[in-house]
Amino acid sequence: MSEKKEAKKAKKAEKKAAKGQKSGKGFKIVIAVLLVLAIVGEFYIGLTIPGKIENAITAATAVTDNGSDDPGVEFKEGTYGGVEFKTLEDVVKYYNDAYNKTKAKTADFKNSGGDVETLYAFIGEENLQIKEGSLLVDGSANAMLNGMVPGILSGIFKPNVCGLPPSSNRHPADDVDSAGASMATSRVTIEDVKAGNVVDNGDGTITITLIPVATEMSEKGMDPQGHFFNTLGALDSVVGSISVLSFSQGGASENVKATYEGGKAVVTIDPASGEIVKADYNMVVNVDVQHANVTVLKDKSASLVILYDNHFPASDATMAEKGYTAV
């Protein structure tokens, strides 16, 4: 292949990878905006000064149910859908095998430009929410401020389609972690799992529910929560780089916390094929900032609860909306 063709191919791959990783960056920007808005927004709403909230959002974006364990998730030894499970470790192994088999399949889709792209065959859709009423400043909520959250989210976060998490990419070749290692296979271990169970659906399928152990400042692919979800990685560095924000004591690493707890993976598997046929991944992260200074406000705290969901498979309508049709 000529150097010109090689360069063109590399550039195209780089563009695809950047596009696929966009959602992770989007999460961090959303959170940064809301944290700054929480601090200055409450103040400016009280003073009814027009335009100040919009200015805070612009400054921040220039930086390029609170999840509780389901009491019914308890493993019971038995045979489900014709499959025997003696231990929770058996459940984890079965989940991993189904995940790997499902993710090994690809399919061709025509994009909105008329080109054919090879994507994961099992594609899902995403949804990001801030838990209602969870945006707090110094431990208190502001009803008007919380009411603005949905509009802010829709203006910043643009959902897309992706492969099974922790993938944030629909292109298998670009589905890698921060170290460049492939994420085409599951990394879940029994040590990652706090609780789990299996249910026989009575229609030939079984549903596995797994709840990962809590993790602080998780990075996708690198820890218990990151083995299940598209976690945010170094959120402290993103928040700490916002020009309008500083800290009255310490730095971002000491004052920005992201605790992942209460999320779960609910996966339906067809034992006949050994593949996942339906899945919901529900991530819950509590973000907390302490000792923050923004403009004239000093030593403030702000917190919010993020609910991020991946549902599989994506509907035909969603795929079409994102510009993909099956070949």
Describe what this molecule looks like in 3D:
With 327 residues, the protein is of the alpha+beta class. It is 31% helix and 30% strand. The protein has helices at residues 3-20, 22-47, 52-61, 88-103, 143-156, 235-240, 252-255, 316-321, and strands spanning 78-80, 83-85, 106-110, 116-120, 124-130, 136-137, 140-141, 161-162, 193-200, 206-212, 215-216, 245-247, 256-260, 264-270, 275-294, 297-312, 325-326. The strands form three sheets. Strands 5, 6, 7, 8, 9, 10, 11, 12, 13, 14, 15 and 16 form a twelve-stranded antiparallel β-sheet that branches. Strands 4-3-17 form a three-stranded antiparallel β-sheet. A two-stranded antiparallel sheet has the order 1-2. A hairpin with a 5-residue loop joins strand 9 (193-200) and strand 10.
Topology of this protein?
Elements: H1 3-20, H2 22-47, H3 52-61, E1 78-80, E2 83-85, H4 88-103, E3 106-110, E4 116-120, E5 124-130, E6 136-137, E7 140-141, H5 143-156, E8 161-162, E9 193-200, E10 206-212, E11 215-216, H6 235-240, E12 245-247, H7 252-255, E13 256-260, E14 264-270, E15 275-294, E16 297-312, H8 316-321, E17 325-326
Antiparallel strand pairs: 1-2, 3-4, 3-17, 5-8, 5-16, 6-7, 6-16, 9-10, 10-14, 11-13, 12-15, 13-15, 14-15, 15-16
Which keywords apply here?
disordered N terminus; 8 helices; 12-stranded antiparallel sheet; about 325 residues; alpha+beta; 17 strands
Strand % is 25-35%
Which residues sit in consecutive blocks of at least 5 with pLDDT less than 50?
A: 3-23, 42-68
Shape: globular
Order of helices and strands: HHHEEHEEEEEHEEEEHEHEEEEHE
Structural class: alpha+beta
Mean pLDDT: 82
Distance between the termini: 27 Å
Most strands sheet: 12 strands, antiparallel
Which percent bin holds the helix content?
25-40%
Give the tally of β-strands: 17
What is the CA-based Rg, rounded? Answer: 21 Å
Number of helices: 8
